[in-house]
Design a protein that fits this description.
Oligomer: single chain
Strand content: 5-15%
Order of helices and strands: EEHHHEHHEHEHHEH
Distance between the termini: 27 Å
Number of helices: 9
Structural class: alpha/beta
Shape: globular
CATH topology: Nucleotidyltransferase, domain 5
Number of strands: 6
CATH architecture: 2-Layer Sandwich
CATH class: Alpha Beta
Length: about 270
């Protein structure tokens, strides 16, 4: 069994007022037999840094003395926070069997499409290729081991209406009979939703999506390059279209990263 924990980074602003160019949705696929190992690694790092609460990407960037009340990193300096972030991300790279799959949306471009007008429509366009890549990964894994490998998706909670809509959308994807839609023969059950403060997997997913958003939105590659070895890759070692999906695929009008830059991440 493969567990795909996902979370998002960035804000899908309205079509008429785009203030961030990118939105990221994705996370990490953890084999069930590695779950407890990663959980122990997470706990070990947090204990070393005396962190007892939830870890969120946004906590790392908040100014000292001006943090949210729930910021579990408020006792750490900026340098200590960076070392904590580095330590946690490197724990992922300990395990070759843990894979990263993400979708990255360029908002000015996707909103230029006539069928996309609302933030929730953007979210759906981001979620669908993410689930497809997970299904393809399960298929590839099944072929390599000679037996069927199944998986489930666990997502961070949003608000009740958004969660309900996403569950319904997920159900429609799995039950679709259209010849134009992917067949999710390796996915089990419904979409599972969990509060991030109760899920180490989702907290790791938050770190991953935050690192990728930071790369695309601000050109800061420090954290992206740490986790690059764990991206799902094609036979030639490329992550584009395998572990990292651009949405829309073509026509990005403004690019933070070039194709050459991404192809060098190998």
């Amino acid at each position: 069994m493969q567990l795909f924990f996902i979370d998002d980074s960035g804000t899908i602003s309205p079509k008429t007022k785009i203030f961030q160019k990118h939105f990221v949705l994705g996370g990490l696929v953890i084999p069930e037999d590695q779950w407890h190992n990663l959980e122990r690694d997470f706990s070990y790092v947090c204990k070393n840094f005396k962190v007892t609460g939830e870890i969120k990407w946004r906590f790392f960037g908040q100014k000292i003395g001006r943090e949210d009340e729930d910021n579990s990193l408020s006792h750490l300096t900026i340098e200590e926070r960076d070392e904590l972030r580095r330590s946690l991300l490197l724990k992922i790279t300990k395990y070759q069997s843990i894979k990263i799959i993400v979708s990255v949306v360029h908002l000015p471009t996707i909103y230029s499409l006539p069928m996309v007008n609302l933030p929730e429509e953007v979210y759906s366009f981001t979620y669908k290729p993410l689930t497809e890549r997970f299904q393809y990964y399960l298929q590839d894994l099944s072929r390599s081991v000679g037996s069927k490998i199944n998986g489930i998706i666990i997502s961070d909670q949003r608000n009740p209406a958004q969660d309900r809509n996403l569950r319904n959308f997920h159900f429609k994807l799995l039950k679709s009979n259209s010849i134009l839609e992917s067949k999710y023969e390796n996915l089990i059950e419904t979409l599972f939703l969990a509060p991030s403060h109760h899920s180490i997997g989702i907290q790791f997913a938050d770190l991953i999506s935050g690192a990728i958003f930071r790369y695309f939105e601000h050109g800061d590659d420090r954290w992206f390059r740490l986790i690059e070895p764990n991206f799902r890759k094609g036979v030639k070692g490329n992550i584009e279209g395998y572990g990292l999906v651009r949405i829309p695929k073509n026509g990005w009008k403004e690019m933070t990263l070039s194709q050459e830059n991404l192809s060098n991440l190998r």
